[in-house]
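Dear colleagues,

As part of the handover before I leave the project, I'm documenting each prediction I ran so the next person doesn't have to rerun anything. This entry is a single chain, and its sequence is reproduced below.
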Amino acid sequence: SGLSFKWVGILLAALGVFAGFFAVPVLAIIQHRPSPERKGNMQAAANLLSFVAIFLAGAAYYLLISLLKLTPSEVFLLGFALTLAVTFLALYALPESLLRWKSWLRF
């Protein structure tokens, strides 16, 4: 009684799209805003934080499965919901990124 293969594919695609909406503007700001002599430091710090988050994701998955007794499908849906929420928060905080994306698509 889990999600069908079709729904998992749809949700996985949506997760990737919304993750891109979050990650691309953040990485663009990291590359654009620092002064030239600090760009390398900022990119290194961002990379370190990314890998720390990857490491913590494993611990979070374990806690969600063992303590909260969530199924893998529920963990996946929770990840999707959190990613969607952070995407809208990022678009609210950085509305110019949405405008740049629209101009890139030539609306």
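Residues 5-32 form the longest helix (28 residues). The helical segments are 5-32, 39-66, 72-93, 95-105.

All the best with the project,
I.
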